[in-house]
Amino acid sequence: MSSESSNKNLWIIIGVICLVVLAIAAYIGLQDNQPAKSATTTEESAVRPLEEHSLSDEQLTDIAKQSTTQTEQMQENSEEFAALVDESLVEQPIAEDQALQKDEIAQLEEVQKQLGEQKVLLEQQHQDADKLLELKEQQLAELEAQLQNSENTQTSVQ
Predict the structure, then answer these.
(1) For residues 138 and 53, is the Cβ–Cβ distance under 8 A?
(2) Residue 52 CA to chain centroid, in angstroms?
(3) Can you list the residues of the chain whose pLDDT is less than 70?
(4) CB–CB of 39/117 below 8 Å?
(5) Pick from 62, 154, 77: which is nearest to 114 by CA?
(6) Could you tell me if 42 and 66 are in contact, meaning their C-beta atoms sit under 8 angstroms apart?
(7) What pLDDT is recorded for position 47?
(8) pLDDT on residue 112
(9) Nearest alpha-carbon partner for 121 in 53, 64, 75, 56
(10) Are the C-beta atoms of residues 132 and 60 closer than 8 Å to each other?
């Protein structure tokens, strides 16, 4: 029985190692091939439902940390976008060659798309921050009520 058990364990370990290697290879491959989708995946992974009123302090600090990291990423991205959205671009004459015109239009559409994505991310951050503030206010109100109750019970006991 121990020989069968050790063989089974060996195959499980080999399978897990293969899965880990495949997952790493897939992650690297997707990251290299799709840099534009990385913003949407971070957006999806960073958004958490905040409607729950029973969040612990650790969960609230995690949300705040994620919001801070998103803000820092957005600031870095905004510096990159600032270079793309230079006012001189609007004043430059359009190329006479149609291929160049199509290329410039495609570039401007890509910039517009990126700005739209950035706007959506910023709006979501603002909504998350507002919800976080509401939850913190509720938490403070609950703590004040608990403090009042504990003071009332202490004064009634004395």
Answers:
(1) yes
(2) 19
(3) 1, 33-57, 59-60, 77-90, 94-95, 158
(4) yes
(5) 77
(6) no
(7) 46
(8) 92
(9) 75
(10) yes
